[in-house]
Amino acid sequence: MKARVRGALLAVIVLGIGCGNADAQDDLEQKVKAAFLFNFLKFVTWPPARAPEDGRPYVMCVVDDEPFTQTLAQVVRDKTVSGHPVQVQDRAPGASLRDCHLAYLAPGPSMQATESALAGAAGAGIVTVHQADAAVPSGVIRFFLDQQRVRFEINTVAAQRENLHVSSRLMELAERVQVSTPP
Length: 183
Prior knowledge:
Elements: H1 2-18, H2 22-42, E1 44-45, E2 58-63, H3 66-76, E3 80-81, E4 84-91, E5 102-105, H4 111-121, E6 127-130, E7 141-146, E8 149-155, H5 156-161, E9 165-166, H6 168-173, E10 176-178
Parallel strand pairs: 2-4, 2-5, 5-6, 6-7, 8-10
Antiparallel strand pairs: 1-9, 3-4, 7-8
């Protein structure tokens, strides 16, 4: 499974890089990230109190990146996860994320802004995804680029603190997994 998914993503990325257009590469990177975010919903189990009720959507929030919000909305349009629709919302920096199931924090001007946003989401059972230069202890998933490829790492300690169960299938796809026990 891991090799097949990575192979498909690699083919898409190589085709995009071959076009030589920086805008096309950036667009492709955003679409790859959006596809990853949608698939993260499929491989995480929320505690019963946080899971969407019958007919209610999974809410994906994007902080401070309205163009990416549009890309993500296009990727998840008309898709469902476990019979639930998926809703994408744009959030301003500092806005509450407590009603989100997954929150993507756009690369920001400072590590402090990312840490502050993650701290605001702590304890709410949210899959937080960020793209800081280094892993942030309170973040559940971090995107990073490796040889022009989008990769991700999973912080199982943060996931445990949020009472989230990350599927072993998703952990197999991660480039890195932190699996120590929380203090």
